[in-house]
Amino acid sequence: MLVSEREQLRANIERQIQDYGNNRSALIPVLQEVQLKYGHVSEYVMQVVADILNIHPVEIYGVASFYSFIGHKQKGRFIIRLCRTISCDMQGKDRVARQLENDLGIRFGETTPDGNFTLEWANCLGMCDQGPAMLVNERIYTQVTPDSVHDILEECRKVFGVHTLQEKEMLCELPTQAK
Ligand code: FES
């Protein structure tokens, strides 16, 4: 990362911490915002947050490790999280998982080489009666089938092919909504 990029990143984090209050309660919301905006929380970010909040970096690392939605590695633009808890398991999550892996050419825990998609497992998403349930960034999909996987991925791919960068970012940050 270039020095100017680091300065920009640091300025963004300082602004967020100001917004959330310059104390420990800002920690999780700030990490979540960084995750949403940059796709991961780097060691540099943890160090900056630690400096500003006067918390030991090891503690920041512990918090970031505890929450599965905060990642240390660069992830894809679209993070697909498929529920693997029992209701979705019994409603066919394995077939959906296979279709996702086949369509994207990666396994769960991996990111496509073009950096567009990451596949992850999730625990219960609160939609047990409409499983299998899946999150794509913050949008939830229910009753997902292998056929609908294809449509969902196409919908994501269109974002890269057709829309402006600003529209892509808006789509990546859509609020949670049932489909
Ligand atoms: S078990 Fe999958 S949403 Fe609850």
How many angstroms separate the termini? Answer: 38 Å
Number of helical regions: 8
How is the biggest beta sheet arranged? 4 strands, mixed
Low-confidence stretches: 162-179
Task: Please give the oligomerization state of what you see.
Answer: single chain
| SSE sequence, one letter per element | HHHHEHHEEEHH
- Count of the domains: 2
CATH superfamily of the largest domain: Glutaredoxin
Per CATH, which architecture of the largest domain? 3-Layer(aba) Sandwich
Strand order of the largest sheet: 2-1-3-4
Which structural category do the helix and sheet elements fall into?
Answer: alpha+beta
Shape: elongated
CATH class wording of the largest domain: Alpha Beta
CATH topology of the largest domain: Glutaredoxin
Helix content percent band: 40-55%
Number of strands: 4
Give me the Rg, rounded: 17 Å
The share of residues in extended strands comes to 5-15%
Mean pLDDT: 84
Bound molecules: FE2/S2 (inorganic) cluster
Enzyme class: oxidoreductase
InterPro entries: NuoE-like, NuoE_dom, NuoE_N, Thioredoxin-like_sf
Protein name: NADH-quinone oxidoreductase subunit NuoE
GO molecular function: 2 iron, 2 sulfur cluster binding; metal ion binding; NADH dehydrogenase activity
Describe the structure.
- There is one protein chain.
- With 179 residues, the protein is α+β, with helices and mostly antiparallel strands.
- It folds into two domains: 1-66, Arc Repressor Mutant, subunit A (Orthogonal Bundle); 78-163, Glutaredoxin (3-Layer(aba) Sandwich), CATH 3.40.30.
- The protein has eight helices and four strands, in the order H-H-H-H-E-H-H-E-E-E-H-H.
- It has a four-stranded mixed sheet with strand order 2-1-3-4, with helices on one face.
- A hairpin with a 2-residue loop joins strand 3 (134-136) and strand 4.
- Helix 1 crosses helix 3, helix 3 (43-53) crosses helix 4 (57-66) and helix 6 packs parallel to helix 7.
- The longest helix is centred in the first third of the chain and has 18 residues, at 3-20.
- The chain starts with a helix and ends in a 7-residue tail after the last helix.
- The structure holds FE2/S2 (inorganic) cluster (FES).
- Keywords: 2Fe-2S, Iron, Iron-sulfur, Metal-binding, Oxidoreductase.
- Belongs to the complex I 24 kDa subunit family.
